[in-house]
Specification:
Elements (H helix, E strand, L loop, with lengths): L5 H14 L10 H4 L6 H9 L7 H4 L10 E5 L26 H13 L4 E5 L9 H10 L3 E6 L12 H7 L3 E5 L5 H8 L3 H14 L11 E5 L10 H16 L5 E4 L6 H9 L3 H10 L14 E4 L5 E2 L2 H5 L17 H4 L11 H4 L17
Parallel strand pairs: 1-2, 1-7, 2-3, 3-4, 4-5, 5-6
Antiparallel strand pairs: 7-8
The structure holds iron/sulfur cluster (SF4) (2 copies).
The site of one iron/sulfur cluster has 12 residues, from α13.
Length: about 375
């Protein structure tokens, strides 16, 4: 495998992102603004200060690991966008948090040895990582299903010309975030002009065969609410989106996930600044759905951070809540048998996953929640 000179190539990416100024950014990263909430400990402190009638573990005492199915890798926090609700605090400035070559190799060794059937690549925008194609190819060669968590607009960058066809040839599932099928809701969260660019990217994906019912070219859209409320019913939203995207743009997709916004990072900052934090947390607790616990992604997913540290999920990763494993929670030491016996680490943000119909990387986890 060819070695990557990451600093040089990241500079190239940064230059391209600088040129990508077609739309104003929705915001700046917490890190760039030196905001207190850039520190995970501050986020946990703020969440801990909200009066709640119950703690998460008291309501979900039976939460326990299942079989490992998803090997999720966060390649880094670099992103071409800076969305208001981002739980990763990603942005064009986040070249400080990118997986290095040595860690990429350790990840590849671990995923080849793993019994997980799916490798789930996330970021930031994972496609901006200099080794993105290497990782996809290695996972594909190892017989894994690959998922690319794609923000859509990244496909329009010159470096990614032809990427949709390349991914299609490797049967990669595209899990594409699009806050809403209408322009105002999407642009409000992601920046002016993002909706229009997302539609252009969806055209590219449809042209590559995605979103047309072919299980080897699956296009999943991911939607999240614009404010301090829970996601609507996935099945009714999916129907509405199908009709809206087909009617207005002639576009198709295969399925739609509806996620709740997690009370962490930039969405947590917005909740606090807008005076919605206490009421949102209360809403999450009051909407706790015991049936959602079984489908939580922390049960069947290993989450690997950009620095190789291990977590029960992407959200714990952003809060610095490392996995409870002996011997140092790093991918180079990963032991799948020990993983399956661990205690899952939880805190108050977990209420975001169990509210209403549930909310996980795979969308709503039940069909029985009340919204
Ligand atoms: S929400 Fe997604 S697209 Fe938006 S800044 Fe975060 S990682 Fe990038
Ligand atoms: S935040 Fe993570 S650990 Fe908590 S319930 Fe959700 S998936 Fe599980």
């Amino acid at each position: 495998m060819r070695p990557a000179t990451i600093p040089l190539r990241l500079e190239e990416v940064a230059l391209e992102l600088d040129a990508d100024r077609a739309s104003p950014r929705a915001t700046q990263s917490l890190s760039r603004r030196h905001a207190p909430l850039a520190a995970p400990a501050e986020q946990l402190k703020l969440l801990g200060s909200v009066p709640l009638r119950a703690e998460f573990r008291a309501l979900a005492p039976a939460l326990a690991p299942a079989q490992l199915e998803y090997f999720q890798v966060n390649l880094g926090k670099l992103c071409n966008m800076t969305c208001r609700h981002c739980h990763v605090d990603a942005g064009p400035d986040r070249t400080d948090a990118m997986m290095d070559d040595a860690t990429v190799e350790e990840v590849l060794a671990a995923l080849r040895a793993s019994r997980a059937h799916t490798v789930d690549l996330t970021g930031g925008a994972p496609e901006l990582h200099p080794r993105f194609r290497d990782v996809v190819q290695a996972a594909f060669d190892a017989g894994k299903q690959v998922m690319d968590r794609c923000n859509l607009t990244v496909l329009l960058l010159p470096r990614n010309a032809g990427l949709a066809d390349w991914l299609a040839a490797r049967k990669v599932e595209i899990v594409a975030s699009l806050p809403h099928y209408r322009r105002p809701n999407t642009d409000a969260q992601r920046g002016d002009g993002v909706f229009e660019r997302s539609i252009r990217a969806l055209r590219i994906l449809n042209a590559a065969g995605y979103g047309k019912g072919d299980p080897q070219r699956r296009l999943t859209l991911v939607s999240n609410p614009a404010g301090a409320f829970l996601g609507a019913s996935q099945s009714s939203v999916e129907r509405e989106w199908r009709e809206g995207l087909q009617r207005n743009h002639g576009l198709t997709f295969d399925r739609l996930f509806v996620l709740n916004n997690m009370p962490i990072s930039r969405f947590l900052e917005w909740l606090e600044a807008s005076g919605n934090l206490a009421s949102y947390m209360e809403r999450l607790v009051n909407a706790f759905n015991p049936a959602a616990v079984e489908g939580l992604m922390c049960r069947n997913t290993l989450s690997v951070g950009w620095d190789g540290r291990l977590y029960d999920c992407d959200f714990n990763q952003m809060l610095g809540l490392e996995i409870d494993l002996p011997g140092g929670p790093h991918i180079r030491d990963f032991d799948e048998n020990a993983w399956s016996r661990r205690a899952i680490v939880t805190a108050r943000h977990c209420f975001g996953c169990t509210a209403g119909a549930g909310s996980s990387c795979g969308g709503q986890t039940t069909g029985t929640g009340t919204i």
